[in-house]
Design brief:
104 residues, mainly beta, Jelly Rolls, 6-stranded antiparallel β-sheet, 43% strand
Amino acid sequence: MFPGVFQTGSVNTPSVVAVSSGAVTVLNANLNRRGWQIVNVDAAVVDVRLGGTASSTVYHIPLKACGSAGDGTGGVVGQTSGTVFTGLISVYCGGSGHVVVLEH
């Protein structure tokens, strides 16, 4: 699905996570995590927080909305090398959205 993102080892099956008017944990803490990626695939902005529960005012990274759902223009964030964040990751959407989540 994301060529060249994860070069070695196994990647979990991508999961589509619905984010409707609130916060959702998309990745639990995992000390063995070697990489992760979150892709916004809907027409609403999704905010990402590392290490806590995301909200409309408390987040680290806003992911750009798609022009229309599933068109491939949504924001992407992740880490695939270097020091990878292994804590809990949550997302927030004020409306109705979806993200695709990968963990390595």
